[in-house]
Amino acid sequence: MEGLRGGGGHGEAAVDGGDERWVEDSSVDYQGRPPLRAATGSWKAAIERLSYFGLATSLMIYLTKVLQEEMKFAAKNVNYWTSVTTLMPLVGGFLADGYLGRFSTVLFSTLIYLSGLILLAISQLSPRLKPERNLHLHETLFFVAIYLVSVGTGGHKPALESFGADQFDDGHAAERVQKMSYFNWWNCALCAGVLLGVTVIVYLQEKVGWGAAAVVLATVMAASLAVFLAGWRHYRYRVPEGSPLTPLVRVLVAAARKRHLHLPSDANELYEVKPQNIKRRLLCHTDQLRFLDKAAVVEHDGGEERRGAWRLATVTQVEETKLVLAMVPIWVATLPFGITAAQVSTFFIKQGSVMDRRMGPHFTLPPASTFAMAAIGMIVAVAVYDKVLEPYLRRLTGGERGLSILKRIGVGIAFTIVAMAVAATVERRRLRSASPASMSVFWLVPQFLLMGIGDGFALVGLQEYFYDQVPDSMRSLGIGLYLSVIGAGSFLSSQLITAVDRVTSHGGAAAGWFGKDLKSSRLDLFYWLLACIGVANLVFYVVVATRYSYKTVMAGGKVVDDKAGDIECAAAAAAAAY
């Protein structure tokens, strides 16, 4: 028999303390061999290009000033584009994990991304396609271009970030700690790109034109692709094994087929494969969603064991299914955070466009450049957390991690609620000002900084959560799930704007909260509404997060637990009993 009993963690050790020189986490090098630790992976292969944010932050201004859209329609178009951009990674992550591989997905999606930037440049530089010559054709090409960027992002974002995290071995203590820092510094690198995007790129858009900016972005993207390809010999690769969702469906089918069977009193009687027969990590049994455990119950028919992929699952497969189902409440509880985050690239930027942006007698700050304040806030928050707060909390608690992942997300959500309250207060003061246009744009600094700090906790935490807590075979899809929080939040923000506008304007019969411009709008009340929604949701989030059980991985006969480091499987089972 190839299996063994002992899903509760009392079986043989998964790792027998092999040669430290080799990586034993099922990854391979460029020749398909087990990777040599010193020559592959780690930080040398995880540094990603400096990204840009110029397109997203300037989109609101472009739609209202160049395409002459009303503010509420422009905000909805920005939110729809953001939604597609951040929901497409679910498709890209699925293809990367199951069929194409993460490296190939990065390559193909970057080429699509480049085609969108090139088309954007053509729509801006060709005299016949300029908006003053043919607004309808220009608008069509413009939207096709930015949605090509969305499709490219769908594969690029989840595959590249998860491919970078794959360069660190979870089974190696030093590399596991490095991976925790990887997500922090990944976001610092992205924010550095954001700063360049909302300053240099936006300046080009304002002073030279969108065509020149698109050419620069395409050049930078092409150069980043060349740098990425140059390191192919040093990467660690994961071989795709087909749809990552199939094993989850098999568990559900097997559990449904055996729904009338009784669960054994001892979890060690559930089916699990021998650790030495596979390279994949094994998970310890938990008592959550016990009905799924029936998928791992071994049936006996006339003394013979009944098997089959759709009839018998391992404890690890059952636990992976539990993890995915347990993520649903967390995902739902973070959607209001996504709604709040959508305001930064829409209404925050629009506020800045109607305020005094002069910085001396000869320079006026472009509206989209105000986003730099949020990027600075995030860089500061991440750097302080990684270099000061987390090391202090590690010494204080004695664990590998300072804050648990979900606590970090909760802290970030709390910061964004405060940001909405501050934004409402500032907007109210602007509306009451005798000369709103003379109010300095630097009044927006607190709300941008608070949102940036909140992102430094919540966004980084969400990335790490959805990468770490999903099954190993669907980590790109996990990054897609993280991005879907922002995408679904942007979509819900559009729906909320529509609903609030309909209610407050009594179906268009009166002036509502959203007028044709900020002068006739009441953004302050909308911000207060978001703050109230955030407070109510934070209570729900705390309830969900306190009930969550983290992934427990057997490594050398021990459990790698996100709360407390390494603990014996037997001790974990005993603690659960109490």
From TrEMBL:
A Pfam family assignment: PTR2
Cell compartments where the protein resides: Membrane
Gene Ontology biological process terms from the UniProt entry: oligopeptide transport
Domain of life: Eukaryota
Ranges that cross the membrane: 50-67, 79-100, 106-125, 185-204, 210-232, 323-348, 368-385, 405-424, 444-467, 479-497, 525-544
Gene Ontology cellular component annotations, sorted alphabetically: membrane
Membrane topology of the entry: Multi-pass membrane protein
Keyword Transmembrane carried by entry: yes
InterPro entries to which the protein is assigned, alphabetical: MFS_trans_sf, POT_fam, PTR2_symporter_CS
Keyword line: Membrane, Transmembrane, Transmembrane helix
UniProt GO MF annotations: transmembrane transporter activity
Protein family membership: Belongs to the major facilitator superfamily. Proton-dependent oligopeptide transporter (POT/PTR) (TC 2.A.17) family.
Protein name per Swiss-Prot or TrEMBL: Major facilitator superfamily (MFS) profile domain-containing protein
Organism: Oryza barthii
